[in-house]
Design a protein that fits this description.
Blueprint: H1 3-19, H2 31-40, H3 46-59, H4 63-68, H5 71-78, H6 85-100, H7 109-112, H8 120-131, H9 140-149, H10 159-172, H11 178-191, H12 210-213, E1 230-241, E2 245-246, E3 249-250, E4 261-262, E5 265-268, H13 274-279, H14 281-289, E6 292-297, E7 303-306, E8 310-321, E9 329-330, H15 341-354
Parallel strand pairs: 1-8
Antiparallel strand pairs: 1-5, 2-9, 3-4, 6-8, 7-8
The structure holds a DNA duplex (11 and 11 nucleotides).
Pfam families: HHH (PF00633), HhH-GPD (PF00730), NUDIX_4 (PF14815)
Organism: Marixanthomonas spongiae
Protein name: Adenine DNA glycosylase
DNA sequence: AATCCGGGGTT
DNA sequence: AACCCAGGATT
């Protein structure tokens, strides 16, 4: 074993034990709870995921509770956290563990990979933390720390890069305490070796950090550029009947917000006036469902809702109708439905104004 | 190998 | 506006 390796892991773990945050999932080795936390923290900051973790543990103390819950309940608790496929896969995996595995949680890296929504990172995290299996985690923090300390310039989002960093991380892992080591590396990336302007002068590795020596800290890690965002224009038809009922549709098929609910949506290629809106095919279909008495634009200025790779420009049309079919729901029950943040923001704003 | 999938924070 | 976040699935 290279002397360098021992130095790195010992220094790192020492730093971790002195600087780690107290987090609820660090007080347990219950694989269910570790799994839950790891899924929630995928592409999600600890501060953002934490309140959701607490809500889920409270609502679903065991994998059986989660499995038995209706999907609508799970999605409602997940509302606002994003990447909703995580919630759907979590629920499906809970069914699998509860029923097929009779509640016996997968207890090694290989079997963990069979769970929906569990990839190399998550399987490694659970296996190392819960079962002491030496599988190296490679998340965004690990890419950053290792690329800098060891001066690796391979793009982290290339196939070669993923392979190379996993191999390097695997070589460095402390097999005696893999869970602690993995968390130490991630914590160091999250709290010290940060993306922008890290404090290299005081860093525990600055004597040996390749990036620091070569003045490449701001250039590492290398990442291939992604394509630009697409713009979309959403016209939401907020139906209001005299009985204070409205219409919600569940999004199905591909694309964003699968299984979440929304008002009837008419998408247009650009921002449209009322006259232009009424010419759209989607509007004709909509107007066959309800008897429109009046229609007024709620927000002249579009709400801009930014997703990772789409910018949504949304306008809400308040549509008074005389009749509504039995698919309508009371407006007061809308809060029971999982909806995208874009919709939740409108509902909150509209409700205040309306009452 | 590329692309898609949210929402929020930082710079 | 661009980048990032305890990534994974799909095409």
């Amino acid at each position: 074993m290279p002397e360098n390796t021992t130095f790195f892991r010992n220094k790192l773990i020492t730093w971790y034990l002195e600087n780690k945050r107290e987090l609820p999932w660090r007080k347990t080795k219950d694989p269910y709870r570790i799994w839950l936390s790891e899924i929630m923290l995928q592409q999600t900051r600890v501060e953002q995921g934490l309140p959701y973790y607490l809500k889920f543990v409270d609502a679903f103390p065991t994998v059986f509770h989660l499995a038995e819950a209706p999907q609508k309940t799970v999605l409602k608790l997940w509302q606002g956290l994003g990447y909703y496929s995580r919630a759907r896969n979590l629920h499906a995996a809970a069914h699998y563990i509860s029923e097929t595995l009779k509640g016996e949680f997968p207890s090694n890296y290989k079997d963990l990979l069979n769970l929906k929504g569990v990839g190399d990172y998550t399987a490694s995290a659970i296996a190392s933390i819960c079962y002491n299996e030496p599988q190296a985690v490679v998340d965004g923090n690990v890419y950053r720390v290792l690329s800098r300390v060891f001066g690796v310039e391979t793009p982290i989002n290339s196939t070669a890069g993923k392979k190379e960093f996993k191999q390097l991380a695997q070589q460095l892992i402390d097999a005696e305490q893999p869970g602690t080591y993995n968390q130490a590396l991630m914590e160091f990336g999250a709290r010290y070796c940060v993306p922008r302007n890290p404090n290299c002068e005081a860093c525990i590795f600055n004597n040996r950090c390749e990036a620091y020596k070569k003045n490449l800290v701001s250039a590492l890690p290398v990442k291939l550029k992604k394509r630009k965002v697409k713009k979309r224009y959403f016209n939401y038809m907020v139906v209001l009947s005299e009985g204070k009922r409205t219409l919600l549709n569940q999004r199905t098929g591909k694309g964003i917000w699968q299984q979440l609910y929304e008002f009837p949506l008419i998408e247009s290629g650009k921002e449209v006036s009322e006259k232009e809106l009424k010419k759209l095919e989607g509007f004709k279909l909509f107007s066959e469902e309800v008897n429109i008495e009046d229609m007024v634009l709620y927000n002249e200025t579009s709400v801009v809702h930014k997703l990772s790779h789409q910018h949504l420009f949304a306008r809400f049309w308040i549509v008074a109708v005389s009749e509504i079919q039995n698919t309508g729901i009371p407006f007061s029950e809308i809060q029971n439905y999982p909806v995208p943040v874009l919709l939740q923001n409108f509902i909150s704003d509209f409700s205040v104004f309306k009452n």
